Amino acid sequence: xxxxxxxxxxxxxxxxxxxxxxxxxxxxxxxxxxxxxxxxxxxxxxxxxxxxxxxxxxxxxxxxxxxxxxxxxxxxxxxxxxxxxxxxxxxxxxxxxxxxxxxxxxxxxxxxxxxxxxxxxxxxxxxxxxxxxxxxxxxxxxxxxxxxxxxxxxxxxxxxxxxxxxxxxxxxxxxxxxxxxxxxxxxxxxxxxxxxxxxxxxxxxxxxxxxxxxxxxxxxxxxxxxxxxxxxxxxxxxxxxxxxxxxxxxxxxxxxxxxxxxxxxxxxxxxxxxxxxxxxxxxxxxxxxxxxxxxxxxxxxxxxxxxxxxxxxxxxxxxxxxxxxx
Length: 326
Fold this sequence. Notes:
Elements: H1 2-29, E1 37-41, H2 48-64, E2 68-72, H3 79-87, E3 94-98, H4 105-108, H5 116-119, E4 120-130, E5 132-136, H6 144-153, E6 159-162, H7 168-180, E7 185-188, H8 192-200, E8 206-209, H9 214-218, E9 221-226, E10 252-260, H10 265-280, H11 282-290, H12 301-320
Parallel strand pairs: 1-2, 1-3, 6-7
Antiparallel strand pairs: 3-10, 4-10, 5-8, 5-9
Helix pairs in contact: 2-10
């Protein structure tokens, strides 16, 4: 009698166990990614962060077996894109790519309710692009020495711009103003191409750029100095800021990738593996070289987390003591 009473329960427990086991096996067999991945790029179309993201995303799509869609969400000093990814489900299917602005959000936008350390999980550095300071041909300077002399004699007269505060161009300018003790009026733009158009048109005096244009060869734009410690191979005849006496001056557009906090480790690992495969591909390396992007020596989540902390500390100090005049 007791056996009859418990037999249905034993059968139910067996059925539940079988169902649970089958579900677990399916979970093990199902590999990320199961669907397409969206990359939210914090830069506007045509900027070096956007270009690098698209070059690498194209190859990563083939490695992951899924389409990687790039969606630009510029503006707000990168806070719009950061907030968009932070709010996304932490399932690995919404990814952020961003420039150096990720390291200065807390300092420049304290009211944005965005906290990159709290809200984002580092995946990997993707690459870095040195910059060159370009001046328009109508600006009455021909080299670094005449630029410094003019800035000292006309504080706040010349202008510079970039795709928003916190961008690589903005930070490079802030570092220059602090180290050289000069004043340049800063103008923020929504995207790099917008700022570059004003530079080419003479409405902007100078600009720190990673991307190259034919206007340099045509004489519209004049290279003044590069932001590398050693001469940049794309500008072998242009001295560095360090050579001109700003010892230790170095700035770059470093590009990195993040997931929402709480994303599965599998997603981080698979994205990093796909990124590493892309960076190792000779065709991808050639395309990156053409736009001036240097592949990272070290990739992965741990390295990016450490590097991000160093950058946050470095730029917070510089920005606190260097207010823009605009």
